[in-house]
Specification:
Elements lengths: L2 H12 L3 H7 L3 H63 L3 H82 L8 H50 L3
């Protein structure tokens, strides 16, 4: 993957609307897991790209600094050679003066070459610096998105577990709902009521039989009393 491709991918992922992606997903948790893997992979690649780009940038900066230093050094040598030539020419040493002037020209040529190399590297360094800044910014944004995704995943997992627990609780409550005749407790209550009704019927049946026996006793007692009163009337 080239630096430009990584830069475009980093920018795309850094600007991705996570909430919108999750809203469109049939299974948000699977979507989050996929995004986490994608972000993690791209962050790793982006870190490699940023590291390589920064390394190249530092090398160019070092070369640029060396060119600047070389230009200054060759400039100093040119000045020294020129002054020596002037001194020799003033003393009548024309040949030696010309030789030092030649050395001054060579030094100035090297100075010009170093300055040109430094100037040519500056736009490349500026472009690389811009790429590094963008990669770093995008990388930071991707890492923040990754933290958001991981937090969102933890939130969804917690909500899923809570919903599962709530559903389990509702099912448990429904299974013991005394107002629901189909519940286990409802069926048990109905059985108890039938047993109670049967017991009440037997009690009523027993009570009616006992009442009949007492009524027969009362009838016998009344008959005896009538016979006794009749005997008294007759003076028996």
């Amino acid at each position: 993957m080239t630096k430009q491709t990584i830069l475009g991918r980093v920018a795309q992922l850094a600007k991705a609307n996570i909430n919108a992606l999750l809203d469109q997903a049939e299974d948000p948790q699977k979507m989050i897991d996929q995004l986490i893997r994608e972000y993690t992979s791209n962050i790793r690649e982006a870190e490699d790209a940023v590291g390589g780009t920064i390394g190249n940038l530092r090398l160019m900066e070092q070369d640029h600094a060396e060119d600047i230093a070389a230009a200054a050094e060759w400039g100093g040598k040119a000045v020294a050679a020129s002054r020596k030539a002037d001194e020799l020419r003033a003393a009548g040493g024309v040949v030696e003066a010309d030789r030092f002037d030649g050395l001054a020209k060579v030094a100035l040529g090297r100075q010009l070459q170093s300055e040109q190399e430094a100037a040519g590297a500056e736009p490349v360094i500026a472009a690389q610096t811009e790429v590094v800044d963008k990669l770093r910014t995008g990388l930071d944004q991707m890492k923040e998105r990754l933290r958001q995704l991981q937090g969102k995943r933890d939130e969804l997992v917690a909500r899923s577990r809570t919903a599962h627990a709530q559903n389990t609780m509702v099912d448990a409550v429904r299974s013991v709902n005394v107002l629901d005749p189909t519940s286990e407790l409802g069926r048990f209550e109905d059985k108890v009521r039938r047993e109670e009704a049967r017991a009440q019927g037997r009690e009523e049946l027993a009570a009616s039989s006992l009442d009949a026996q007492f009524e027969s006793l009362d009838t016998l007692a009344d008959s005896a009393e009538v016979a006794a009163r009749l005997a008294r009337l007759k003076g028996v």
